[in-house]
UniProtKB/TrEMBL annotation:
PANTHER family membership: L-ASPARAGINASE, N(4)-(BETA-N-ACETYLGLUCOSAMINYL)-L-ASPARAGINASE
Pfam families: Asparaginase_2
Organism: Neorhizobium turbinariae
Name of the protein this chain belongs to: Isoaspartyl peptidase/L-asparaginase
Domain of life per record: Bacteria
Length: 315
């Protein structure tokens, strides 16, 4: 069988073990496994990388355990503003939405922009209207809200009032979901979706919908999806930076990703991580925090999921 590859993340920076119950950790890892299954099913039957990353991200958006779609973070005014993007490495076609408030699956909204839009990035109410005009599912804000996010917003506001925002746990702060894939035809794709970070300013847009920053894919080089303080991913143009290191310096995906996460971003003292797949199907999932929800499929077709250092088989 021709080689294909898939890797996903559900956000980095978690992850004091006490933040979640054992049952919640298990449920989150199970949903990572389900996301892998969804993406793998597309790749195994010879489908396209872009469909695989979309399928995997939809599962994580629908899960309450990750900061995207249902379960997304709340901004300073208690509103969900959702960012997502998707990129096809074969054609460099890309679609993104930001500040959307109603698109049930932001990644499907981003895909619709890629397929039908004259733009790469649609913002705010226009993104919601566009999605609705294409017949995509839209929801009231309440659909996206979970008790966990409400508690996280209250905790972040308390930290802000006390001047201790730096001490907030990573789980209170942020999270994101993403997927990268290589399909049997040699094409790469990447997708990323997020609610941003809890208590973010209204109108703030992170790196996830910015092509070249939080998401990037180029055939023959790599596909990248990032998680962490988006402002720094934008300044370092992380996705493109890794692709450039690989293309111009000849670095492999592991070396280029580690350089950016463990050195370039680490010096800002921010949590950061990503998943990457190279054109040869090799996968990297570096993070500079205590943990990162992540998963990938081995060459033997076995599923691996992890939140902390320990890597587990799924199912
Ligand atoms: N990168 C996301 C953002 O800045 C948040 C995260 O991944 O934690 O919007």
């Amino acid at each position: 069988m021709t080689k294909f590859a898939l890797a996903i993340h559900g956000g980095c920076g978690v992850m004091a073990k006490l933040d979640l119950s054992e049952a919640e950790w298990n449920a989150a890892r199970r949903d990572l496994g389900r996301a892998l299954e969804a993406g793998y099913a597309v790749l195994e039957r010879g489908g396209r990388a872009i469909d695989a990353v979309q399928a995997a991200v939809v599962v994580m958006e629908d899960s309450p355990h990750f900061n995207a779609g249902h379960g997304a973070a709340l901004n300073e005014n208690g509103i969900h503003e959702l960012d997502a993007s998707i990129m096809d490495g074969e054609t460099l076609a890309a679609g993104a939405i930001c500040g959307a408030r109603h698109i049930r699956n932001p990644i499907i909204g981003a895909r619709a922009v890629l397929e039908h839009g004259d733009a790469v990035l649609l913002a705010g109410p226009a993104a919601d209207r566009f999605a609705e005009s294409k017949g995509l599912a839209v929801e009231e804000q309440a659909y996206f809200t979970t008790e966990k996010r409400k508690r996280a917003l209250a905790a972040m506001k308390a930290h802000a009032a006390a001047g201790t925002a730096f001490a907030a746990s990573e789980a209170e702060k942020h999270g994101t979901v993403g997927a990268v894939a290589l399909d049997q035809h040699g094409h790469l794709a990447a997708a990323t979706s997020t609610g941003g970070y809890n208590n973010k300013p209204e109108g703030r847009v992170g790196d996830s919908p910015i092509i070249g920053a939080g998401t990037y894919a180029r055939d023959g080089v790599c596909a990248i999806s990032g998680t962490g303080k988006g402002e720094f991913f934008i300044r370092h143009v992380v996705g493109h930076e890794i692709a450039a290191r690989m293309a111009y310096l000849g670095e492999d995906v592991e070396t280029a990703s580690a350089k950016v996460i463990m050195e370039d971003l680490k010096i800002h003292n921010i949590g950061a991580g990503l998943v990457a797949v190279g054109a040869d199907g090799s996968v990297a999932a570096p993070y500079n925090t205590d943990g990162m929800f992540r998963g990938w499929v081995t060459d033997a077709g076995e599923f691996r999921v992890a939140s902390h250092a320990e890597v587990m088989s799924y199912p």
